Amino acid sequence: MNYIKQKVEVVDEKKLEPSTTKKVQRILRAIYITLYKATLQAIARFLNFLVLAWLSFYYIAESIVRNFTPRALSTLKSLRGKTILVTGGAGGVGQELVLKLIKYKAKVVVWDINEKAIAKLNEKVAEEGFKLYPYVVDLADRESVYKTAEKVKDEVGPIDVLINNAGVVCGQTFLELPDYMIERTYKVNTLSCYWVNRLTNINLTLVCPYFINSGMFEGCKPHHAPMLEPKDVAKRIILAIRREEDYCTVPGNAGYILAMKQYLPAKLTWLWQHRIIRLPQAMKTMRQFSEVQAA
Ligand SMILES: NC(=O)c1ccc[n+]([C@@H]2O[C@H](COP(=O)([O-])OP(=O)(O)OC[C@H]3O[C@@H](n4cnc5c(N)ncnc54)[C@H](O)[C@@H]3O)[C@@H](O)[C@H]2O)c1
């Protein structure tokens, strides 16, 4: 009996062992799958490289054409009939933007916290024979932003162009800044852009201006160039929007100084800012931020 049992077990083990052909087939299949995957990956990487190379070439060419085409020849986006939202539209640059945009026959929506200034602007626009869509809203309050956005959607329609112009500034040094003002600056100047931008699907144009004579930096005495006028900045912003620029500094040559800053040692840029441009000294002459302005 024992002998028979042993014999049966030997036969079964042999049955379980794969034949050499099957082993080879399995190895070949594994090699094939590995090679197949590697080839696909190589093709995908090559196609990715081609797309990247093409887009790099295209964007460089686009930027060269955009920057070197005379303004008179460049194609400008029409603003006629477009719904344009200007935040902080009752203030210095914002108001100039509004007064220019209505003349392009755009539907201009203004958001501002300053009720009196917004009412005054509304009257001015009506006197010129145009219609304004004014809304009093505190951009530092997210819920208020969302509610006003819903109202605008119902009463005016979707926004085509958004100008995130509202801003606050505090004329104190870093260590003197009151906590509430640090929070408010972030809420109005930064966070509100997230809440408002979410409401639209738009191209982005970043505008970086030098000092503007709007009252925001009242008292500042820049050393090398006079302050810009709000109406000139508004004109440049509208041109940047119409040319669908991604980034614009006002004045244009400030862009080279900003770019240079990236390549110079930080201590050197501070030295030059202090001794040549004298920016910190200019800022220190600014009228101190008052409670009235913060409210
Ligand atoms: N003035 C400058 O020198 C200068 C320089 C660089 C950048 N900027 C930026 O340009 C933009 C326009 O500046 P400006 O010189 O016309 O300033 P401004 O103070 O004349 O106008 C700002 C407008 O934003 C409104 N605002 C402030 N807080 C608000 C809030 N919580 N909710 C809704 N509206 C609010 C104000 O009521 C005002 O109408 C700002 O974003 C500013 O930071 C200005």
From TrEMBL:
Any one GO cellular component localisation term in the record: lipid droplet
Residue intervals passing through the bilayer: 42-61
Keyword annotations for this protein, in alphabetical order, are:
Membrane, Transmembrane, Transmembrane helix
What is the protein named?
Answer: Uncharacterized protein
> Sorted alphabetically, which PANTHER family does this protein's record hold?
MIP05442P, PKSB
Q: What is the lineage of its organism?
A: Eukaryota, Metazoa, Ecdysozoa, Arthropoda, Hexapoda
Q: Which GO MF terms are attached to this record?
A: oxidoreductase activity, acting on the CH-OH group of donors, NAD or NADP as acceptor
Domain of life of the source: Eukaryota
**SUPFAM superfamilies for the chain:** NAD(P)-binding Rossmann-fold domains
